Amino acid sequence: MARSVARERNERLFLAGGVVRDLLLGRPVRDVDLVVEGDAPAFARRLAARLAATARVHARFSTATLALPDGETLDVAATRRETYARPGALPDVAAGAPIEDDLARRDFTINALALEVGSKTRLLDPLGGRDDLARGLVRALHEASFRDDPTRALRAVRYANRLGFRLEPATRRWIADSTKAGALDRISADRLRRELRLILEEPRRSTAVRCLQKMGIAAAIHPALGRPAAPARLRRTEALVARTGSAASWRCYLFAWMADASAVEAAGVAQRLGMSGAQQRRLLAWPGDVARLPAGLAGRARSEVRRAARDLRLDEILAIASGLGAADARALLAAAPGSRGPRLSIRGGDLLAAGVPAGPALGRALQLTLAALEDGRVDPSPSAELAFALRAARQENA
Question: How far is CA 218 from CA 159, 190, 238, 285, 383, in A?
Fold first, then answer.
């Protein structure tokens, strides 16, 4: 369908970038990007009409996104050249360049590949991307790449980690040089947070963080992220999440990464990543959360541990547990909010029927009885629970 739409205006159509890379590697294709030597927005509108899709045009970059009837999306872009008014700025785009120029402005050789979709399928590889795929290398196209767009340093680590590749030596040196020169300081908080989130949402985060630390990137973002113990802590977090089958978000791994951060450091990380609202509040509270659940939880009453953890979410619980010994971690997970603990067999109506007047003392008596049940201080039977609750209610009303 797309090929016939391109032929209407004698436009050249290509698959380019990551889709070609993943096809050559035999990996699942995540996103399909079409590149057109021509008017991409106009092509996208014609293609949308054929596919009963909706086209959303991004005029500044001469791109469009098609929302297909089945819920999938398709990105369309014009071949283009890019220039940077200053390091770290978004690029100025000149659409309509030859495909070779479009490939030359990309980040890495393994992404500077195109597959022409025409009467004959033809692979374009002007910069040796296919050889680097065979060698397992992530190679930047030129020395200024990481000054033009410092987020490429984070993407280089992410691609190397995802694919099991190595950073080509010159590329590694260019990243280190640009990092020392303060290139990362020119990335906006939103762009930096998005790049870190992408890293922390992929498997083997601990390996990626170790690479970020070795290259000085982590400390350049914030010193609290540069501590040597962080990769091991992240590795334990990944193992704990896998073992428990928990649905941890990327923030869980960020908490583990900055496990021993002070309140001042947590505020600095929150500011650098542009956190706001609930995300900011959770990050600012993190040092206090760690402090109230220290080693020794296995020797404390389960009800006490549950009270200490009562307002924490799963992300924080898992990140804290990964820094504890095995017994303490089990104690924390067993007492965490949402974990399956004991349930009372009595209710408030049972206390009212036994003569306890309605009021705060009744609810408090039930809470004390549940804590005693959790800690094994009362037998799990209706009669034992009721007797304990009545004594507790009398003491509350005394």
Answer: 17, 16, 19, 21, 58
Phi first, then psi: give them for residue 275, nearest 5 degrees: -70, 145
Rounded CA separation 47/58 (Å): 16
DSSP assignment of 22-81 equals HHHHTPPP---EEEEES-HHHHHHHHHHHHT-EEEEEGGGTEEEEE-TTS-EEEEEE-EE
With a cut of 60, say whether residue 164 has pLDDT above it: yes
What span, in angstroms and rounded, lies between the C-alpha atoms of 340 and 330?
13
SS3 142: coil
User: Taking the CB of residue 302, how many other CB atoms lie within 10 A of it?
Assistant: 20
The pair of three-digit structure tokens given for residue 264, joined into one six-digit string: 């001042």
Express the helix, strand and coil content of the chain in percent, nearest 5 each.
55, 10, 35
Q: Are 159 and 61 in contact (CB under 8 A)?
A: no
Confidence of residue 374 (pLDDT cuts 50, 70, 90): low
pLDDT, one tens digit per residue, over 247-276 is: 899 999 999 999 889 999 999 999 999 999
Q: Hey, what are 367's tokens?
A: 């809470």
Residues 11 and 36: beta-carbon distance below 8 Å:
yes
Question: Tokens 């590949």 map to which residue?
Answer: 113
- Tell me the torsion sign for CA atoms 242, 244, 250, 255: negative
Report the pLDDT averaged over residues 33-52: 89
The pLDDT of 7-34, averaged and rounded, is: 85
Collapsing DSSP to helix, strand or coil, 123 comes out as strand
Mean pLDDT calculated for residue range 220-233? 95
Residue with tokens 């009303």: 397
**Nearest Cα to Cα of residue 318 among 261, 253, 232, 269:** 253
**SS3 assignment, position 375:** helix
Q: Quick one: pLDDT band at residue 1, thresholds 50, 70, 90?
A: low
Q: Can you say whether the dihedral through the CA atoms of 133, 30, 15, 115 is positive or negative?
A: positive
89 in Cβ contact with 4 (< 8 Å): no
Question: Model confidence over 345-357: pLDDT tens digits?
Answer: 888 888 888 888 8
